[in-house]
Amino acid sequence: MNIPDDILMAFADGELDEATRRMVETAERDDPDVRRRLATHRQLRARLQTAFAATLEEPVPERLLAAARKPAAPLAPSVPVAPVIRLADRRAAKLGAAARRISISAWPALGSLAASILVGLGLGYAVWHSPDELLKTSADGGVVADGTLAQALSTQLAAQRPPDRVATIGLSFLAKSGAYCRTFSLSSGGAGAGLACRDGERWRIHLLAPAANEGSAGSGYRTAGSNDSPQLRSLIESEIQGEPLTQDGEKAARRAGWRAGPVQ
Amino acid sequence: MSTTEPIENIQARIIELLPRLRRFARNLTRNPHDADDVVQIAVERALARLDQWHRDARLDSWLFRIVRNAWIDETRSRARRDALFAPAEAGESIGVASVDREVDRLSVEAAMARLPEEQRSAVSLVLVEGLAYKEAALVLDVPIGTLTSRLARGREALQAMLRWAEGETS
Q: N or C: fewer beta carbons within 10 Å in chain A?
């Protein structure tokens, strides 16, 4: 009798109904081929069981026990929340209107971010006042990329590292809002990373965050990879539509002037 | 089953399950440190979302599922993080595990580690953790037919690798 392999596997796994199981049992008795194939499946199962049994005997690390014992608490945010200031507040302070208010802010959706760029404490000042004029205020009160930063965002591919660059582009993606967005890390004006999204002919800055690793101060060099920021990562996670653009995708988007088609 | 099982009971049951969660996570992540990280995240998530656990579902299946989802989240965010700022330079260090002709005898663990994630998790849940097809399909959020076909392919691949390894040394 020719019994398909999936039936034999299910038999070895104890997953067959009564009638089919009896049928296989009979075949096992009478058919050496079935016997041999069944033995293979049982043997594999037994080998796997044996190979991984030892793991169960290992002592469980204390941190896992502690996690299981902890009194139930509401989900902690997956991203450490860094103190940020809203640029709008900072501008107000600049005008002498109010003292700087530091707010611990949840990340609003990109769409609602138009006028509320979040700037890492301290960093914003450095970038704002950097001689390169990387940012400027737009008419609606938001912040857009200017000068060399705007140029880099429009022209540089993610993998490119021109020697005199002011910014390195990390990745490009289509946001849920339908706009192209690109992450960048700054080589001047303070070590920071940010997210800019295309808005008409401009690159609107949605986030500017201090680099995560401030440790290696003094070396004078920062690798691009160290300019990583949990806030930025979290914002990308929540806003990205699909996967980041490939280099071909970036080139196509660049050719199209970073104008995205209608939202799919 | 009571729907008002005290949290202390559930926590005690989770503690009992920790060794199996670690084992599953290790097969999934192929790295003991990642495995413990993922288990920790999963335990925290589970305790914070106990209200989402349907009490007629098995606690172990539910936790396996959270472990796997936590790992999927982690791999996705790592892929993005890797792409984030070092797309060109990272190339050399991200060596894809080469399935070359190295004559190293494959242990069961090594053979398992070479399976694609889909097959590895199916094999791990059914053949190592001893879950029924129905339970394993629930953990992986796939129909039973998908589970059994992943399982069959995983088995075939394991057999082939182990047979090859043994043939090589005998």
A: C
